[in-house]
Amino acid sequence: MVEAGGDLRHVGEGVRESLRAAELIGALSLATDLGVGEPLEHGLRTTVIGVRLAESLGLDEEARREVYYVALLRYAGCTAESHLDAALFGDEIAVRAEMAPVLYGSRAELFLAIARTMRAGEPARWRAVAVARALVQLQDAFRKGTAGHCEMTQVYALRLGLGAKIQAALGDVFERWDGKGFPVGHVGDEVPLPVRIMQVAEDADLQHGLGGVERALSVVRRRAGASLDPAIAAEFCRAASELLHGVDGPAIWDVTMAAEPGRPSILEDDMVDEGLRVFGDFADLTIPYTLGHSAAVAELAAAAGRLAGLDATECLVLRRVGCVHNVGRVAVTASIWNKPGPLSRDEQEKARLHPYYAERVLQQPELLRSLGQIAGRHQERLDGSGYPRGARAVDLSACDRIFAAADAYRAMVEARPHRPAHAPAAAAELLRGEVGAGRLDATAVGAVLEAAGQEAGPLSAPRPSGLTDREAEVLGLLAGGMMTKQIAHRLGISPKTADQHIQNIYGKIGVSTRAGATLFAARHGLAVAEPAQAV
Description:
elongated, 3 domains, Arc Repressor Mutant, subunit A, Hypothetical protein af1432, mainly alpha
């Protein structure tokens, strides 16, 4: 990591790419908000308040930078124990959300928050037994869970090129002034100063969101000298109005980026890709079944892109999308991802939102936004049966189609809680079936299978906009002048079925009239001119 100001630098005849570390880690902070059930942008607000508080305390630039990056990255290890927390609590995200406002309160408050939320929705008798067992295990669970969380956060900090002091501080984010924290139980000044400042800022932001400045002041005063450093808490109370000013505004991303002390830290070239790989590892840790999934999809998609004739830039984009595409999974409880049986309707709806969450956290800067747009479409299908938006062929680019096929293939050859891994040959056959059903693109699937070392096998000739063979036939007859009933008679299907085909065709090719469909058919050589027979 180097100090710099621009986004791209020309070196010789090539172009060296760069990205602000704060922008990448800021996006990761948004994902951690989702993973721990805290209000979106809570991490950004904590960072701004923390840096302002450090300034108010008279800390120098280096110390303020430590506060900045500790606050941004503090919960990046939250997925390390997600599947274990889900096994203990049920919906671990809901439990974490309930815990957040009392995290720096008493043990009794913390245990009550957990008991109130865990296993919600389960029969009362089962829930009571589960709560009783969990409370017995909490001390050990917290110690092990926070240790794993902190270790992973430190690993990410190392990979992102952050300094030794920041890495060390991230190992103590769950310690407390009174020694009642985890995993070690450090007391007072043993807790690093950036952590003590971050904790006051974090608690203040949560309480401010729940009840304004007065609530923030009341809670911080009450916890001063217990969980929170009394001197830092006193400084917050003295300057609360200034410290909290504007943090709940719509421009908090820009405010956070501007708050970075000193010159922006820049990730360059290979470090950009290493930073993106952190996203993949962060997402894949949610359950053991997905470990390595993002990296495998990244390499397969890039290789398939090359075989499909995409240029080097597009192949690089596909590889990078592979690193980040599943980051939205952290917003959905691991109890859903780890469920061994069929998902309920409600669980399905929650799971189907994960591409949207990926796109949401990858909104800024432009490099991440371009990746997030493809990530947000990786579960879409040509026939509109995908999610979350039900996009159709006309909405999906070549990169979208290749990436969807690569992700589908890798998921098939990996075990999941509800099924064993498919053998590569069986996965190839399933993927071909998706082409035949009109859901995946034939060219994209052929490239993916070739890249995976599989025979492409018999694939339907690729149709424009993902039309199935039957839809292409209906379109040809429609463009040739036949009415719906005539098409039905010609093909031996009901008029209702023929009309449904026509509506599907309109959606896929992006038209709403027979004239538009006719022009499309003519341009793609699908029009069939036959005398219409009376029906």
